[in-house]
Design goal:
alpha/beta, Rossmann fold, 7-stranded mixed β-sheet, two-stranded antiparallel sheet, 5 helices, disordered N terminus
Length: about 180
Amino acid sequence: MWGINLILILWCAALHAQTGDTEKLAPYYPTPETIVEKMLQLGGLKAGEKMFDLGSGDGRIVIMAAQKFHAQAVGVELDKDLCKQSSARILKLGLEKNARIVNGDLLKQNYSSADLITVYLLPDAVNQKVQPLLDKQLKKGARVVAKDFDFRNWTPEKVENIPDDGEGRSHTLYLYRK
């Protein structure tokens, strides 16, 4: 438990750091592949649907959504190096028709075409900033799957507790529907 707490403490210390005029909203902390698949399954992702991963890191959720679920997958990532890394992996895997990474601020994107949004962001500082944007933009029936941190003003349709991800850490997934 100290590992995640240390990451949260370091993130809070770095929260006020700016990248240009854009605030970095969360640290990069990769989600285990088994949890990625559970997130997409919980969200009911179907072939041809459009999904966005907010803070896509190395692109693992986007890649699995395109590769295994045959969805149109878009990641939004502020970090230029992570964006280049994940875009290169998408090209290497031949997924560029169904997957892409946008290098930009997740608070300045349009999610109105989303069928599914996945997020692994921190609670008060970040999820609460994203929530009003999603409230405004998401179409009826769109789903949101949040990992480990809920959206305070939304009621989850389903909560899934995962006792161990194989790496000695438990997770909680929250499914919301507009």
